[in-house]
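Task 17 of the worksheet. Students: predict the tertiary structure of the chain below and write it out as structure tokens. Keep your answer in the requested format; marks are given for formatting as well as content.
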Amino acid sequence: MTLFENTRTFVERKRTQGYNYVKSASMLSAFCANVGDIPLDNITERQVAAFLAGPHTSTNTWRGKYGLLKIFFEYWAARGALQALPMPPIRPRCPHTSAPYIYSRRELRLLLRTTRTSQKRVECKVDSRTLRTLLLFRYATGARAGEALNLLRESVDLEKAVLTIHGGRFNRVRHIPIGPDLQKILLQYAQSTAQRTSGSANFFVTRDGQAINEVTLAKSFQRLRRIAGIRRYDGARYPRMNDLRHTFAVHRVTTWFKQGADLNRLLPALAAYMGQVGLGSTERYLAMTPERFRNQLTKLSPQRRKRRWSDNPALMRFLAEL
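Model answer:
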């Protein structure tokens, strides 16, 4: 088989396994166009390196392309179509310049109070009630931006207090319960926007009843954040709306921490609720939670294995003040 045929077979195989594979298929097509329709075992390391080092390619993009091609070649090597992988040495990772920003509860209240001021201009496509409800929705569920904006009216069962979330990684669908506070907020929003959402399948809509895109939402949030005066002082650019997802997770873990809950049991539940396939992303929230209070926690933590966090009054008082 030639490269084009190998690529088509590989993509079809991935899709039968449940992967969306739109972006990856597009990248493999670009590789085919760059190298040409040649036999797979004729591809050289130099050709792969030339494709990876395309114009305006960041290190993260380079590594993403590298990982995809490596999986592609390993697939065919395992089936005897290749003797060796034509892969150049991999670039080292970029150092992380910023960690997720965790909003304090005071900052969250400030953002919510400021929505009316930030969205009062007529040219704002998203009104204040919609922006405020989106903030609460994302903080209360940890949903990604695309999951929130693609939420359908038919996917919001306010009677049973259950949401059907589409999207995320691997285009999976999950059903998540919501608490009575969010249930009430979403019900009020649905009633207030019933007239303008009649022609749209989306739950969250603009002033004229259209679906909200991520660029519009990001611009609305950054205007809100600037007016509210919330900024970072650690060298990173600025807090993002997507940091509400991280804030949801860290606040949830912190609450469990205060209550002395079994995190080994609850972290997998949190991962499933947030639509994460593995525990790696969720466990970093566990590391992020005590990092803010590392000195105090180290000083107050139980030193004997049989003692529990809840047995330490000083620690419990400290956690209650977070």
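Marker's comment: Residues 290-298 have pLDDT under 50 and may be disordered. The chain has three domains: 3-77, 105-228, 243-320.
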